[in-house]
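Still learning. Show one?

>
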Amino acid sequence: MRKPPNERPKLGLKHPSAAEARVKAALPPKPVKADKDGPERKCVLTGGKSDRAALIRLVVSPDGEVLPDVRAKAPGRGAWIGVGRAELRTALDNGKLKAALFRGFRRRDLTIPADLPDQIEQQLERAALDRLGLEARASTLVTGSDRIDNAARSGQVHLLLHAADAGEDGNRKLDQALRMGRDAEGSGLKGLVIAAPRTILSSALGRENVVHIAVIDQGAARRVGEVLARWHGFIGFGSGDRPCESVSQGSIAAAAPAGAAADAADEGLTTVHE
């Protein structure tokens, strides 16, 4: 007997990576919603479906070049991928990505740049740093070990972040304060190490010597957690890893002040057609 639509099994993407799981573990429980979070999209490489916020959008320029559109704001048809950097590189090298995009865009005059994984990584990094810059300007986060310690112990911290080059002693102290404020002493709850050093975070927030960041607004914690999960998940950055200097210390340090790019993108918001 044919199953009703609501009982049909959905194709799924691969299980969340350790990097993505690390971000989710650092976030507070998500409020239950009565409606769906948003439209789903299908990964052209795996065939699996997921919310568009968890995927990366690709678009085609007028001259046929495939480009990343991680903010999903460029006009025209888009194709979505839900794999990490290593899987994308393999699919690019063996021709699987090209074949999938031929079908997805329904055109064969496509040019896929060899550095597409690098372009995606840089855009994801920029989106994450821009988001932190915007939240800093909105006063939804605090910096400075003493201020973070006080906020954490009083239960105000929804997401605790550490720079990639933060000292272990400082991390442990603030992690302990976070557990005390959440009444979770003895648990493994801890802050999230970001794939960027303190110099990059300081530039992104427009503040001096940013080693730790505490997000004190639940909505902001979700917004920050979402972009960090996509970035860390794509590059495979987990606890104990260190960021790639060629990206974190090169492209971002020379870019415009964090927040400016996001502001410009928000002001030029364009309807996306799929």
